[in-house]
Amino acid sequence: MFEQSFVEGTGKTRKGLSVFFTFVGELVVVGILILIPLIYTDTLPRAQLMTFLSAPPPPPPPPPPPPVVQKVVKVAPKQFDAGRLMAPKEIPKNIAIIREEDQPPAMAGGVVGGVPGGVPGGLGGGGLGSLAAAPPPPPPPPVKEVKAAPSRIRVGGQVQAANLVKQVKPPYPPLAKQARIQGVVHFTAVIGKDGTIQNLTLVSGHPLLVAAAQEAVKQWVYKPTLLNGEPVEVITQIDVNFTLSQ
Questions:
Q1: pLDDT at residue number 11
Q2: β-strand 183-191 against 80-81: which pairing, if any?
Q3: What is the rounded distance in angstroms from the CA atom of residue 2 to the CA atom of residue 6?
Q4: Are 164 and 219 in contact (CB under 8 A)?
């Protein structure tokens, strides 16, 4: 049964010959594809072809350096030397007009027997006195420092009490009198230039006696105190005494 399914034949497939012809055909096709662009060059763009075949242009040369300008300084010829006119070395193109007032002042003439080039106004004879300098001016007199007089001085209470012109007696406070309180109230006062009380500061004293004493002292007037003939303020101490017998 299986033997009938196979076909018996004497023909055999030639695989080697078919592979050879196929390889040769592929080579021919590839060669044709390579040769077509080389033969038909007109089909390519001319501009693209020239860029492939030509080299890029060289860069432009650098600009030339600027020319060097040389400044020619003309030196004016010296016409005068020690007050004498000198002859020029070449003929000038422009001749300047020389005026008398434009000439430099001539050197003062020396005294016979003096030193050439000496100091003008020196002593005659060219001695050592002509070269000596003038004596220096005397120093200014010393200025005496005047000390300003103080505008306020301190004076003791007993000394200033002698200058008292107006003294108001303080009334005895009734409450302090009933309580049998007595004592001394101390103040520090500033007496103005006109003799009136300018400032009054409590130092010590019983509180029931301070108010009456302060109101009375503010009305006191002193004789102005003079210092070098000028009135000044005085700082002094004022004591107000309260006793039950008064």
A1: 47
A2: unpaired
A3: 7
A4: no
